Amino acid sequence: MNTLPALPDADRPWSAALLDLVAHKPASGESPRPLAEREARARALTEAAARKAAATAAGLALPPGPLGWLTVLPELLAVWRIQAQLVADVAALHGHSAELGRDQMLYCLFRHTAAQAVRDLAVRAGERAGQAVLQRVLQAIGVKLGERSLGSAVARWVPLAGAAGVGAYAWWDTRQVGRSAQALFASLPD
Q1: 70 by DSSP, 3-state: which?
Q2: Crossing angle for the helix pair 35-60 and 159-187, to the nearest 10 degrees
Q3: In terms of DSSP H, where are the helices of the chain?
Q4: What is the pLDDT of residues 38-79, one digit of tens each?
């Protein structure tokens, strides 16, 4: 099993959480569907996951002030788990569970957030990305996620409005993940 070199301390929590998330491929209850049913089922899965992510994020964003800061990382991890399950389910309904690996998971989860960083992953769609590429992607994603967590932390000072904003962002973000997964796995040959 390949391991990444240690990242700087400031990025370590993000990279460790990301690697744990993408190293574990969630089991899917979905089975391959006929071509005509895939897009509609992917949309349904995406909407259900988006609602779940929004409710989870908003609920975890309710505690105010410093207490709320303690919920930022658990909120991000909970939403990523929901999104990772969505990616696994979309891959399964397209019959591509076997092809779902670390690179595809990173691509689907963060394509819309750190588009520049994951471009190398898209270019290498069928091959395993090298450690240097993955390191750059994780660092870029870490910066974007740091910005997002700062926004989430600030939102904790205005509990109801902040929770609504965090929930809305999680809903939008999860829909983008679903769209990325659908586009990726629909483009692969059956």
Answers
A1: coil
A2: 160
A3: 12-23, 35-60, 65-69, 72-93, 102-110, 115-123, 131-155, 159-187
A4: 999 999 999 999 999 999 998 888 877 667 667 777 888 899
Structure tokens at 67: 């207490």
Whole-number Cα distances in Å, 72 to 49, 63, 132, 135, 164: 19, 10, 28, 23, 14
8 A C-beta contact, residue 117 and residue 137: yes
126-146 pLDDT tens trace: 444 455 555 566 656 665 555
Structure tokens that stand for 45 in this block: 């899965």
Work out the end-to-end distance of the chain between its first and last CA atoms, rounded to an integer number of angstroms. Answer: 29
How far is Cα 59 from Cα 38, in angstroms, rounded to an integer?
A: 31
